[in-house]
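Summary for the lay section of the report: proteins are chains of building blocks that fold into shapes. Here we show the chain for Serine protease K12H4.7 and then a coded description of the shape we predicted for it.
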Amino acid sequence: MRGFLSLITCFAILQNVRGWREFSRGRSKGGNLGLPGGDDLVRGEHEKVTTEWFTQYLDHSSPTDSRTWKQRYFVNDQYVNQRRDVAFLMIGGEGEASIQWMTKGAWINYAKKFNAICFQLEHRYYGKSHPTADLSTENLQYLTSEQALADIAYFIEEMNVKYELSPNVKWIAFGGSYPGSLAAWVRQRYPHLVYGSMAASGPLLAEINFSEYFTVVYNDLKGTGGDKCVSAVKQAFYQVDLLTRHMVGQRNLDKLFVLCDSIAGTTSSSEDIANLFETLNGHFAETAQYNKDNRMSKVPNNITLDTLCNIMVNDKLGPEVNRLAAVNDLMMKRNNQTCLDYKYDKMISDMRNVSWGSEVSEGGRQWYYQTCTDFGFYQTTDRIPLDFFIKQCSDIFGPKFNLTIVERGVQRTNTLYGGLNPSVTNVIFVQGSYDPWHALGINKSTKLYPAVVIDSASHCENMYSPSVYDSEALRQARIQIEEFIGNLLKSA
Ligand SMILES: *[C@@H]1O[C@H](CO)[C@@H](O)[C@H](O)[C@H]1NC(C)=O
Ligand SMILES: *[C@@H]1O[C@H](CO)[C@@H](O)[C@H](O)[C@H]1NC(C)=O
Ligand SMILES: *[C@@H]1O[C@H](CO)[C@@H](O)[C@H](O)[C@H]1NC(C)=O
Ligand SMILES: *[C@@H]1O[C@H](CO)[C@@H](O)[C@H](O)[C@H]1NC(C)=O
Ligand SMILES: *[C@@H]1O[C@H](CO)[C@@H](O)[C@H](O)[C@H]1NC(C)=O
Ligand SMILES: *[C@@H]1O[C@H](CO)[C@@H](O)[C@H](O)[C@H]1NC(C)=O
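The coded shape description reads as follows.
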């Protein structure tokens, strides 16, 4: 929500990114699972992927509501053999589905090995899958994880017929981040349709006050740059806090962080200040969440926790707050941002846009709605209080969306699915220990299911294609996951 260009640059001939910052609330623009990196597409392979549309019910909870809409999906049937008895489903999530995943990523390697037909179903309300005419609060009532799971169930039934799959076909679901949770829940809810799942980095527990998120980020900084890095970062935020409190300091902040709107001489609300802290904290959060993964990237993917810690401990750059400003410069440059936004009202006004053509329709508005009604997941710190997030629910979606509603939604989600104790089999839960989201995921095997925590790995790291930079722990995890899928497909 920061980084919209200020009015000054309305002659935007420069290829600037306006509107949303690349990362907020632990969510990347476009969705949390990035695009798979690695080799360029093998010519010919990509051409065999087809884009299709499925007629889906709007409201699965109502047997008398006959309204339908078109849900997008991709199919790749070049690896399946004549038996047609293995089907893989990549579950779409909180961003547009990408055709890139249809020929790349770890699951494609498994599909080649196990002769699977591959489907990817875009999540309702994201990408090009528009169930309603716009994104009004009223229309968003059909955006729930339960509706998304029912979408998957109807989809599977139809695909079995349309693609003439074997009566004994085994569907294996794959998902990373929120779809990681969906992958587990769809097996739990529809075991007659889904035989097993690989659930990567799924936050299975809904939680309002997700303060553990930044605890993990700080642990990662410690693991990377030691106590020196952590104390420099803490000191820098302390200095920013002091500077917000007086005029001379505020002028410094304007310059240091290239603020779009001057903080000096204007009245800043407590939400503006929380917003500023959230943006600056976000630089570390994003870097931790995606540290050293093998995503495909429009921009050099070379900003890691090492990069940030090296800057933060470099006393040649001046006091800690100046080093933080250097981190901010680096991230702004990478995002093509010319100034840093922090104004709360600007952000809210963007988020209120209900048009499919708006910038927030890439998923920012939809995902925020899901946090207000289903999940919470608010990444609080000492300086970014819970009220700041709850206020956004009511400011964006209406006064009805207050703490009571969020609490009820979170309780409902955990009641529906069982939180960290789901009753589910044939699912492998995969986490990265550096991924801040792992704090809400399953990290321990039980009699029902295995769980793998990959040391020092980031968000959904195992879903990208193997790379020469893979750690030994990641390599081992990849083997374990492949064996798990192999065993599912072997057993009668
Ligand atoms: C959120 O959790 C943190 C850490 O446990 C705690 O300090 C804070 O008071 C909590 N906030 C609210 C509003 O409960
Ligand atoms: C990342 O790579 C780009 C282009 O190769 C280079 O200009 C930039 O300095 C690198 N950044 C870091 C932090 O290494
Ligand atoms: C920044 O601009 C460059 C050059 O136009 C472009 O290649 C790159 O994708 C842009 N980066 C982002 C994050 O949009
Ligand atoms: C919503 O976004 C669209 C597309 O960017 C824009 O044309 C429209 O003016 C915006 N609406 C409001 C109310 O800001
Ligand atoms: C939320 O709003 C409802 C009425 O719509 C009210 O009963 C409830 O007390 C409010 N909750 C909070 C925490 O303000
Ligand atoms: C595993 O998850 C439990 C429950 O959330 C948590 O208490 C524990 O600290 C986690 N262990 C690790 C190593 O993350």
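Put simply, here is one thing we learned. The pocket of 2-acetamido-2-deoxy-beta-D-glucopyranose (ligand 6) is lined by residues 420, 443 (CB under 6 Å).
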